[in-house]
Amino acid sequence: MSERLDGGVAQTSGQAGGAPGPGGQRGGPRLLRWLAVLALAVAVVIAAVLVSSAVHLLPQLRNPFAESTTVRSEPALLQSITSLSRYEAASGSFQVVVDMSRRTRFLPPFIEGTDTLFVGQGTVIAFVDFSHLAGRDLRVSPGRTAVTVRLPEPQLAPATLDVRRSYVFAQQQGLLNRIGNFFSSNPNSQQQVYILAQQKIQDAAGHSPLLAQARTNTRSMLTGMLHALGFRQVTVIFARSG
Predict the structure, then answer these.
(1) Dist. CA 209–CA 215, nearest whole Å
(2) Distance CA 43, CA 45 (A)
């Protein structure tokens, strides 16, 4: 309703046009409630996916920042072929521990120095070389019932280090060593400890009963083979060359 006042101005009764109604006052809290419900629903979905993945109901989720390794190598090149004329009579497995320390004069170890404790696993083969055998090394009796075989002494092949089973047990480095490794990597930094482990395995094989076992195994092999050829008496002699 409107009334005309003096001066020709019409006044409208009722609420003013700029005042908000009841629905406008409730709009803010309602929006917040919807956002809270939506966030709760998203959290429930994420928790359900993680639980399902943990119990193997869904495929395992992959870490998007997981580290990957790519190997780029050229085809292997055959450098040489060697014909072997030896009997591998025995093989020994060895484990050695290498404790290697590197120091710099006038500097304490926590500044410059490296201590490495390395566990090496390797094998050594004892063999008998048949390549130099001649007719005089095989003597047969007139009735072909007895035979004498003269062989060289068994030898030890170079030790072979098993890199899959060898590992660095512990290592301590000085501050300068750590800084140097951070800015530049040295692929040959562990080469010396591998060489030392191989040398220790070779020395251990020389002091082991490996050569004696190689003599026994070679004698047993030749005796069985020559008995099968009809010889009743077989004698195997090991003599030093030269």
Answers:
(1) 10
(2) 5
